[in-house]
Amino acid sequence: MKAQGRCLCGAVAFSARSRAYTAHECHCTQCRNWSGHVWAYVCVRWDELTFTRDDGLAWYAHTPKARRGFCGHCGSSLFWRRNGSAKVDVSAGAFDMPTGLRLGAPSFPENHGDYYGL
What we know:
- The mean pLDDT is 92.
- This protein has one helix at residues 29-35; strands at residues 2-6, 13-17, 22-26, 39-45, 49-53, 57-60, 66-71, 77-82, 87-91, 102-103.
- It is built from 1 helix and 10 strands, in the order βββαβββββββ.
- The chain starts with a strand and ends in a 15-residue tail after the last strand.
């Protein structure tokens, strides 16, 4: 995958070069609270991500072990990264289409919202 992506307002823009072709959906309570529903993501190596604009990039340390990246201007949910990890989860919805991605296995499906079925 060679793709470009951005937040809603464009204050965070990036490109990714990766062999990732699968997007995953996370149903955990934290991702649902953060995104407003299920969060779809693509796991890439941090060094495969290049920022072409990052003046809106902000991070929130939601646990002692990981943090979430978002746009401080428009609020777009963009990244999840375990501290010190060589990998980062990137919001699948932030990539420009066509993505070439296919949806893979869900994460934490047992935590899905009570308003939809799996």
